[in-house]
Design brief:
With 225 residues, the chain is of the alpha/beta class. The protein has one domain: Rossmann fold, CATH 3.40.50.300. Helix content is 32%, strand content 27%. The chain has 6 helices and 10 strands, in the order βββαββαβαααβαβββ. The two termini are 19 Å apart. It binds adenosine-5'-triphosphate. Adenosine-5'-triphosphate binds next to strand 2 and helix 1. Its EC number is 3.6.3.28. Belongs to the ABC transporter superfamily. InterPro entries: AAA+_ATPase (IPR003593), ABC_transporter-like_ATP-bd (IPR003439), ABC_transporter-like_CS (IPR017871), MacB-like_ATP-bd (IPR017911), P-loop_NTPase (IPR027417).
Length: 225
């Protein structure tokens, strides 16, 4: 079985007249070590699919297997635990906690896993150094540029040694120089063996992908690679 298998995934929002069917029978397999780019027009369901693959949202119908485990019958608690153990998330809006320093933001996921203060600090520092932020450990998010904030978010996503990183338009709020830095980091993580699933509308960045999934109107219309 593949690392991730989505079988006939359906998802809609709203009810009655206002109902929108956002995903219409998605089938997708992702192997360990792949770099998958999901592309398609605005509103075609890319983020919805990413959220379902990352267990942040549940499908109305269909099955999702991750690491040979059927996730679609799990309780919210089990899903949260599973999520924390194997995945890291990066979003266009960064979602850092403004009242915490860069170091504390990166420590947070390790705190939830019960690691000691010493270990957390040491690892958070290493991770921030690895994204070239060793001189910004005690800065708050509002004192950092967008590119720096996204690098803190990447360090945070790596805190618990994820097998897979889900990235939703990670360069969406950044200029091209900052975007390139983020893509270089994602490429290095992929080279180190981490599976990456990224939603993007920057076609240029699909060059890093080993598989390109093209969506349209809630369906996968093509898979390249
Ligand atoms: N929580 C929600 N409630 C109602 N409708 C939603 C919700 N989330 C998404 N939608 C709708 O589902 C559709 C798909 O949204 P989604 O964010 O998955 O698209 P996308 O392909 O990622 O778009 P974009 O490229 O613009 O970010 C859109 O029409 C959106 O309005």
């Amino acid at each position: 079985m593949s690392f991730i298998e989505a079988e006939n995934i359906w998802k809609s929002y709203g009810k009655g007249e206002a109902k929108t069917v956002v995903l219409k029978g998605i089938n997708l397999k992702i192997e360990e070590g792949e770099f998958v780019a999901i592309i398609g027009p605005s509103g075609c369901g890319k983020s919805t699919l990413l959220n379902i693959l990352g267990l942040l949202d549940t499908p109305d119908k269909g099955n999702l297997y991750i690491n040979n485990k059927k996730t679609t019958r799990m309780s919210e608690n089990e899903r949260a635990r599973f999520r924390r153990k194997i995945s890291g998330f990066i979003f266009q809006q960064f979602y850092l906690i403004n009242s915490l320093t860069a170091l504390e933001n990166v420590e947070l996921p390790m705190m939830l896993e019960g690691y000691s203060k010493n270990y957390r600090k040491r690892r958070a520092k290493q991770l921030l150094e690895s994204v070239d932020l060793g001189d910004r450990l005690y800065y708050y998010p509002y004192q950092l540029s967008g590119g720096q904030q996204q690098r803190v978010a990447i360090a945070r996503a790596l805190a618990n040694n994820p097998k897979i990183i889900f990235a939703d338009e990670p360069t969406g709020n950044l200029d091209s120089k900052r975007s390139q830095q983020i893509m270089d980091i994602l490429k290095n993580l992929h080279d180190e063996g981490i599976t990456i699933v990224m939603v993007t509308h920057e076609l240029e960045y699909t060059k890093y992908a080993t598989k390109i999934v093209k969506m349209k109107d809630g369906m996968i219309v093509d898979i390249l690679g």
